[in-house]
């Protein structure tokens, strides 16, 4: 027969045993190996200056220091826009005729534009110089490798170039160059150069204040293995590859700046020779 006794709800676990509500799991973060690309020419972006033309002080000439392991050529463009295959052309073609200046291989070469080849920047507003629109760059330096026959140069060589894109700002009544980005165009592939924060390589051997005992080069998580993995987009080289693999499963934040991590990149850095 039917039971008409009191109704009892199904037993529930006590609050302490209730499953906790957790946030969404960290997004999957890709882990990539860095690709080694040979760069034949390097313009030292912190050396770019605008100097008055002695023959016409209203005009400015571009000067900088660069390193080249092969012969090549330089072309300077003003107010240029990127086109197909990393070619650049000025949006003001009557402003200046770009001239290809050849150079020979060598390190720490100082370059100054020939007198008369600069432009009078006074015709442009500060906003046009420092905040251009539609991917127009007030200053573009196109440095292309052109190996000589003695260096193994061929009749038809794939383009190998470094392109430096910059804006021009005014500081204390002086015009200064600020590099926005540097591009490598190697055999039909476009790469954008990025600074990596925390790389210590063979160049530190030439720095008197370099830390000889190696402190500060270890992974910030395990503190034992060398750093070899960078976090993007913040570009902190701060972890070893093993800790980076573990981090992908636990968090999507950079251990240095706490910014969200989009990808991890393993970068093998050559140690200084004794």
UniProtKB/TrEMBL annotation:
Q: Transmembrane segments in this chain: where? A: none
Entry annotated with the keyword Zinc:
yes
Q: In which pathway does it act?
A: Protein modification; protein ubiquitination
Q: Which PROSITE patterns match?
A: ZF_RING_2
Comp. bias (Pro residues): 8-25
A molecular-function term among this protein's GO annotations: ubiquitin protein ligase activity
| Enzyme category, top tier | transferase
Where would I find the RING-type domain in this sequence?
219-258
**Catalysis performed (reactions):** S-ubiquitinyl-[E2 ubiquitin-conjugating enzyme]-L-cysteine + [acceptor protein]-L-lysine = [E2 ubiquitin-conjugating enzyme]-L-cysteine + N(6)-ubiquitinyl-[acceptor protein]-L-lysine
One GO BP annotation here?
Answer: protein ubiquitination
Q: What is its EC number?
A: 2.3.2.27
The source's domain of life comes to Eukaryota
Keywords assigned by UniProt? Lipoprotein, Metal-binding, Myristate, Transferase, Ubl conjugation pathway, Zinc, Zinc-finger
List the Gene3D superfamilies: Zinc/RING finger domain, C3HC4 (zinc finger)
Q: Which Pfam families match?
A: RNF157-like_N (PF26192), zf-C3HC4_3 (PF13920)
Where do the segments described as Disordered lie?
A: 1-25
- State the family it belongs to: Belongs to the RING-type zinc finger family. LOG2 subfamily.
Write down what this protein is called.
RING-type E3 ubiquitin transferase
Q: Which organism is it from?
A: Aegilops tauschii subsp. strangulata (Goatgrass)
Identify the taxonomic lineage of the organism of origin: Eukaryota, Viridiplantae, Streptophyta, Embryophyta, Tracheophyta
